[in-house]
Design a protein that fits this description.
single chain
Length: 317
């Protein structure tokens, strides 16, 4: 059985002080050598850029060394930000909306047989201005979950618009998981409200049920795990990768584990498991939440993770 372990004696535990010192040292020495964002092309090329603008037929990209580029939609995979630790993929616009022929970059928040993306919507409206003949502009922002499986890419719609929208969300989700009747029953249950966190929970369970170990290690990268909240009665947290024990995770520590960045790995904390893939572009951070009745872990952006670990350090007794 294959297992992806960390670089030092196959497992590494770090105190908060050591972890933060390492992280900030790496950030400091790379301030002038690492770019913040890179555009990923389908031919495998990666281009450092400063900004972009989505146009009618292509994406205008202002690069650091190559000037302005006009990249066709079919040339682009997406882009990543290696400072925040986020990746965005170019996807077509709202399937049932007026922007059907437009494209947008959707943030990847969960990987597996079903990928989960987050799309930012920004809308503007002109409103009367009592102090001028020129109308004022009012804007609003909201995010929408998108699911991707094979060639299907479907937005879940906005939550909270009434019963009809909740049922629509449930119907969309069932189309992605219809080959798992146990999960379908959970979605059809009247207690399932169709909230974002419920959809993500179902997708995680589906991806785990479809997981098949891959003996090909491929390339590996490091991922960091740390505890966000922990019940006083929780037993020692035992961490496993693809069925192999890699170490205990105590409070006020982080665990560094090398995972494949090409294939999914099954990572378990005690009896709770998820499938996860590392990134070839940046370190991923996973926040473990433990209460009396559940364990779960969520990928967290680098800046947020390091802020929380610094908070733990400053408040340690």
């Amino acid at each position: 059985m294959q297992v992806y372990l960390s670089t030092t004696n196959y497992k590494s535990f770090y105190s908060l002080e050591k972890f933060l010192a390492i992280s900030f040292f790496i950030l400091a020495i790379n301030t002038y050598t690492l770019a913040q964002e890179f555009m990923m092309l389908k031919n495998g090329e990666v281009i450092e850029f400063n900004r972009f603008k989505i146009k009618e037929t292509d994406v205008k990209v202002v690069t650091k060394d190559r000037g302005n580029l006009e990249l066709k939609f079919n040339e682009i995979t997406g882009y990543y930000n290696n400072t925040n630790g986020t990746t965005y993929y170019l996807k077509k616009g709202i399937p049932d909306g007026a922007t059907e022929n437009q494209y947008q970059f959707d943030k990847l928040i969960l990987e597996g047989e079903i990928n989960v993306y987050e799309r930012l919507h920004i809308s503007y409206a002109h409103v009367p201005n009592s102090f001028s003949s020129t109308p004022a502009i009012s804007g609003s922002r909201w995010t929408e979950l998108y699911l991707g499986k094979g060639s299907r890419h479907q937005g879940m719609g906005k939550y909270g618009l009434g019963k009809s929208n909740k049922e629509k969300r449930k119907d969309f989700l069932i189309q992605f998981i219809e080959d798992n009747q146990e999960l379908v029953k959970q979605v059809e249950d009247e207690n399932f409200k169709g909230k974002d966190e419920e959809i993500i929970r179902i997708v995680k369970a589906y991806n785990l049920s479809r997981y098949k170990p891959n003996d090909n290690l491929g390339k590996i990268s490091t991922a960091w795990f740390y505890v966000k909240k922990r019940s006083k009665n929780t037993d020692t947290l035992k961490t496993y990768v693809n069925g192999m024990f890699v170490g205990n995770l105590p409070n006020s520590s982080v665990l560094a584990v090398n995972l494949s960045n090409q294939n999914l790995s099954k990572v378990c904390v005690n009896s709770y498991c998820e499938v996860i893939k590392a990134s070839p572009y940046y370190i991923k951070y996973f926040e473990i939440y433990i209460s009396d009745d559940e364990i779960k872990f969520t990928e967290i952006e680098k800046n947020e993770a390091e802020r929380y670990l610094l908070y733990l350090k400053n408040n340690a007794k």
